[in-house]
Specification:
Layout: E1 5-11, H1 25-31, H2 34-39, E2 44-50, H3 69-86, E3 91-96, H4 102-115, E4 120-125, H5 146-150, E5 171-176, H6 181-188, E6 193-196, H7 197-203, H8 206-219, E7 222-228, H9 250-263, E8 266-272, H10 283-295
Parallel strand pairs: 1-2, 1-3, 3-8, 4-5, 4-7, 5-6, 7-8
Helix pairs in contact: 3-4, 8-9, 9-10
Length: 309
């Protein structure tokens, strides 16, 4: 990390898919005490409140089956601008909102990194690869497209041009267990680093993550981490509309956060796909707050005991 100031940016994006509820995510993170947890680590926390999307209309030429493309484009430009404005002053944490928010957060942080003459690396912690294009997504849900967009894949002509596309070789996906055939085909033609849950079962989470972090360090890169609730097993994190069994355990997730902290490389973070409608007494929001605190320096011996009774 390069800053002791954390900038919270609420992005209540709920247009990336048809199911509703993620718009309440940013405030759920606040209620779960994110600012207090980070402040207790000696960090200065600045909460810039919730963004609103820019005015935008559905663009001509966008595939007809896309859900809310105009609204999502409005969110993309607003979030990218907020990222560029915040990054010089601290470490932005984007509070989602569905994963369509990363259309803006990743591209905004990539533009910031390029302005500093540094490459942006992206760690995608998710059950899904989110490597669809507007043409290949059968559901029309744009929360499944951010990595393809940020890496400059074809098919996004109706979207804002990406100023500084992320090199696919600078993307690592970890926790995969639900990848559509079209995404699999597209990923096969790239150098994206793919780690599915079988590999984690066989090798543990440390080996693939440390190998990626070594590459980030060697390149002098900035690192954006995008943490989706469905990276975690739904038994411990039920508040997500895209549950896939067999996800990361609490210990695997905390170890990953601790390794990221130790690396000192993380410059921005997404916390996405939290749907409080689906939570159980706030347990998912609290777990995500705990993971963010681990990434930012909380050690095992400092972790609070929580009661949900």
């Amino acid at each position: 990390m390069t800053h002791d100031t954390i900038i919270l940016i609420g992005a209540p994006v709920d247009s990336g898919k048809r199911s509703r509820g993620c718009l309440m995510g940013p405030d759920a993170f606040r209620v779960a005490g994110l600012d207090t947890a980070l402040g207790d680590l000696g960090l200065r926390v600045e909460d810039r409140g919730n963004l609103a999307p820019d005015a935008a209309t559905a663009p001509a030429g966008a595939p007809a089956h896309l859900h809310a493309p105009g609204e999502t484009i409005g969110w993309t430009t607003a979030i990218a601008r907020a990222a560029r404005e915040a990054a010089p002053s601290g470490m932005p944490i984007f509070l989602g909102g569905d994963h369509a928010l990363s259309l803006g957060s990743v591209t905004g942080m990539a533009a910031h990194a390029a302005g500093r003459g540094r490459p942006l690396f992206v760690l995608w912690m998710d059950a899904h690869s989110d490597f669809h294009t507007p043409q290949t997504t059968e559901t029309g849900h744009l929360h499944g497209t951010p990595v393809a967009y940020a890496t400059g894949q074809a098919g996004f002509d109706a979207f804002p041009a990406v100023e500084a596309p992320v090199d696919p070789a600078h993307v690592a996906m970890i926790g995969l267990r639900s990848v559509d055939p079209a995404e699999r085909t597209a990923l096969a033609g790239t150098e994206v680093d793919l780690t599915d849950m079988r590999r984690i079962d066989e090798e543990g989470i440390r080996a693939p993550l440390e190998a990626f972090l070594d590459r980030v360090a060697a390149a002098g890169g900035d690192l954006h981490v995008s943490l989706d609730v469905d990276f975690l097993d739904p038994a411990i994190a039920p508040a997500v509309g895209t549950t896939v069994p067999g996800g990361a355990t609490i210990r695997e997730a905390h170890l990953a956060m601790e390794l990221l902290c130790d690396s000192g490389l993380v410059t921005s973070l997404d916390l996405v796909e939290l749907n409080p409608f689906l939570d159980e007494r706030g347990r998912t929001a609290s777990l995500m707050v705990d993971l963010a605190a681990s990434l930012l320096g909380r050690r095992i011996f400092d972790r609070p005991t929580r009661s949900f009774t």
